[in-house]
From TrEMBL:
Protein name per Swiss-Prot or TrEMBL: Protein NDR1-like
GO CC, any one term: plasma membrane
InterPro entries for this protein: NDR1-like (IPR044839)
Highest taxon above the source species: Eukaryota
Transmembrane spans: 12-30
Keywords in alphabetical order: Membrane, Transmembrane, Transmembrane helix
GO BP of this protein: defense response to other organism
Keyword rRNA processing: no
Protein location: Membrane
């Protein structure tokens, strides 16, 4: 409860508190969280051992994009995807590219975008690293955030991940793989988990911000 403005001092502190709260409110409404990009699904028929055939030169994927913002929409430019196959621990060869067309996503929405890649040239996927097949997936796009009626300027976004493809031609592990800041490298046959820490940090910052409002 603000006291009556009967002295200059309380008037002053009232002004400071109001200005502070306004600044906090503006900061909370202007501040944006980047969308999160996941490879949700991938199926490579040529690597499905129960098919007994490596001749299928296409593969399927689903990209998942999550807008974590409570009250901001996101306008995506076309999302460019690059798929590669690891030849050894730190080099890949390009398998093919795909594009997800531009689209608008409302606040707190999740979009799943399926696509198909035709493997360039002869599609033999014979390379193994420590006996396993590893793919590299990278994306690049740009986004604008919609705050009330206005759009922010464009932000460039990119990321990538390494994933192991199992004996049924699908990625190992059910969960979508975050396309984050993981380097193009497999360490001693195991996939390093990068990006999780950053996600946790954003989550904590989000909680703190919520606690303030
Ligand atoms: C693949 O080959 C195995 C053994 O040669 C056979 O048992 C199986 O039925 C084949 N699968 C298909 C889908 O042809
Ligand atoms: C792999 O091939 C088998 C045999 O055709 C099929 O039953 C199975 O669904 C395929 N795996 C996937 C992940 O589609
Ligand atoms: C390749 O696999 C895809 C996905 O399973 C399937 O739709 C397509 O018909 C297959 N193509 C050939 C030539 O077998
Ligand atoms: C890639 O791996 C090879 C050994 O497999 C190593 O000699 C080379 O330094 C590595 N390059 C980078 C950039 O890590
Ligand atoms: C995919 O795009 C990259 C550039 O973004 C290019 O270097 C590469 O050759 C392309 N791969 C295929 C298979 O077209
Ligand atoms: C692809 O695999 C087939 C069957 O294993 C083989 O005959 C052919 O030479 C391979 N092609 C390339 C470019 O490796």
């Amino acid at each position: 409860m603000p006291p009556k403005h009967d002295s200059c001092c309380s008037c002053c502190s009232g002004f400071i508190i109001t200005t502070g709260l306004t600044a906090l409110f503006i900061w909370l409404s202007i501040r944006v969280d980047e969308p999160k990009c996941y490879l949700d699904y991938i199926y490579v028929p040529a690597l499905n051992k129960t098919l007994n055939s490596t001749s299928n030169s296409t593969f399927l994927f689903t990209l998942k994009l999550v807008n974590p913002n409570k009250d901001k929409g996101i306008q995506y430019d076309a999302v460019q995807l690059r798929f590669g196959l690891f030849k050894d621990l730190n080099t890949t060869r390009s398998l093919g590219n795909a594009t997800v067309g531009r689209f608008y996503q409302g606040h707190e929405k999740t979009a799943k975008k399926p696509g198909l890649v035709v493997v360039n040239g002869v599609g033999n996927l014979t390379e193994r690293v420590n006996g396993k097949v590893y793919f590299r997936v990278d994306f690049v796009t740009a986004v604008k955030y919609k705050i009330l009626l206005w759009y922010t300027k464009r932000d460039q976004l990119w990321g990538g991940a390494n994933l192991e493809i199992g004996d049924l031609g699908e990625k190992v592990g059910k969960k979508g793989v975050r396309l984050g800041n993981s380097p193009v490298m497999i360490e001693s046959g195991a996939l390093k988990l990068y990006g999780g820490y950053r996600a946790l940090l954003i989550f904590l910052v989000g909680c703190t911000a919520l606690g303030f409002t």
